[in-house]
Design goal:
Blueprint: E1 11-15, H1 20-29, E2 34-39, H2 42-54, E3 59-63, H3 69-81, E4 86-91, H4 109-125, E5 134-140, H5 157-163, E6 166-172
Parallel strand pairs: 1-2, 1-4, 2-3, 4-5
Antiparallel strand pairs: 5-6
Helix pairs in contact: 3-4
Length: 177
């Protein structure tokens, strides 16, 4: 984590803020309060934090490997220790590996990173979220069971990316209690 952040501004936690929709969302959220950037690459987190701070906004970054549930719980404790008025959690981080791999506990890496890790982080944070806080999960269309036809091999990279456009899923933190 880096320098002190103001504790009198609303705070938003976002996982996966270093590229794509996560990066754009982090930059937008920074206009409304302090952003807690959660990701696995310190260098990329620092770059996003620097961009936010150059715009006169506030951010703090914490390193977390969501495929490691202990890392998620540790990061939750670090975030709680910041004493920020958290009003939202956006679970955006996700991976789409080209081949199956396992995490240290033997779970499929994509399943652990995209589902179990965000759930563990959210579960650790829920007792510290105020009633009415927003908890949002982003899921890729690749994980949509109704999406049965994979992109054709001849499809361009852009078409494959469009087929994986994130679909927001939203729930209230109070419903998780």
């Amino acid at each position: 984590m880096s320098k002190t952040v103001p504790t009198n501004r609303n705070a938003y936690i976002i996982t996966g803020p270093t590229s794509g929709i996560g990066r754009l969302t982090a930059l937008e959220l920074a206009k409304h309060g302090t952003v807690v950037l959660v990701g696995r690459d310190r260098g990329k987190l620092d770059e996003v934090q620097k961009t936010i701070e150059q715009r006169g906004r506030h951010a703090v970054s914490v390193v977390c490997d969501l495929s490691d549930f202990a890392s998620g719980r540790r990061v939750a404790a670090e975030i709680v220790a910041l004493n920020l008025p958290i009003v939202g959690l956006l679970n955006n981080a996700g991976i789409f590996p080209m081949r199956a791999t396992k995490n240290a506990l033997g779970w499929d890496m994509a399943f652990a990173t995209n589902h179990l890790g965000p759930f563990a982080l959210t579960e650790a944070l829920v007792p510290h979220l105020p009633n009415g806080a927003n908890v949002v999960f982003i899921a890729s269309a690749v994980e949509n069971p109704e999406h049965t036809s994979p992109p054709r091999p001849s499809a361009s990279a852009a078409a494959r990316c469009r087929a994986r456009t994130p679909t927001p899923r939203r729930s209230s933190a109070t419903s998780l209690r």
